Amino acid sequence: MGSFRFPVPSSIAISEAFKDIPPSLKAYMKDGFTVLSKLPADQLTMVSSIALDAVRTPFKVDIDDLAKHLAISKDEAGALLSAVSLLTVFVSGRKDKPEDLVEAAVQANLVPETSRQATLDFSRTLAVQRETLKQDIEKARIAGRVLPSLVDFEVAVDLRFGSSSGRQDLAVPVVVAHIDTDVAHHELWFQMQRADVEKLITDLQKTLKNVSEAEKWGPPRG
After folding, report:
1. DSSP helix, strand, coil percent of the chain (3-state; round to 5)
2. Which of 86, 96, 100, 91 is nearest to 31 (CA)?
3. Which of 23, 28, 79, 132 is the most buried (most CB within 10 A)?
């Protein structure tokens, strides 16, 4: 699924804000709201959590994993994620009541009438977390405003064979890693041996402890 960006103005009517959404994207998200309306109630909590994660840390939601958990197609999962992410951004970035937001979305042909109630219920769930979500989005913006941010980290283990004394008797495991970022053409491939992996894990565990200590200096999460 490709990325998209557009401003969420807070000083104009919500109906006007929806007009800036490209028609093709609007149709895609409309399909997503249709998927939302068909999900059983016990899955909505998970979708809400995923929507928050998608807005806090863009690009890091696994569409294949989402489709598997919800027992829907990959295309449906992508449309659903786009729809609920948009809804999350509008709920967090504006002060509209969920009822007004959904009514405007229906009138803008963004949300089908048949999906109105499900979208309203979902919007109300998000609205309860509005202030916490705004803080999380601002933290993500501050953290990522200087350097490219991590989008994906993939690893695979290669088993490489060699010979000694004329015999094919050597096998060496090598970890091949790929790092991708949110900036085009800023990605890296590299390889590691076991000792490198062990050191990396140790360093990351220390870093996680440092992050936990640093978080104590910030305001408590709501």
Report:
1. 60, 15, 25
2. 86
3. 79
Q: Specify whether the CB–CB gap between 221 and 135 falls below 8 A.
A: yes
C-alpha to C-alpha distance for 188 and 190, rounded to whole angstroms: 7
CA distance linking residue 7 with residue 93, whole number of Å:
10
Q: pLDDT for 29-60, tens place per residue?
A: 999 999 999 999 888 888 888 877 776 665 56
Give the start-to-end residue ranges of the domains of the chain.
Answer: 14-143, 150-211
CA distances from 209 to 87, 151, 202, 214, 215 (A): 34, 22, 11, 9, 10
Counts of helices then strands in the chain (DSSP H, E): 9, 3
Q: Which burial class, exposed, middle or buried, applies to 50 when counting CB atoms under 10 A from its CB (0-12, 13-18, 19+)?
A: buried
Mean model confidence pLDDT for the chain: 83
Residue pair 82/28 in contact (Cβ under 8 Å)? The answer is: yes
Identify whether the C-beta of residue 101 lies closer than 8 Å to the C-beta of residue 33. no
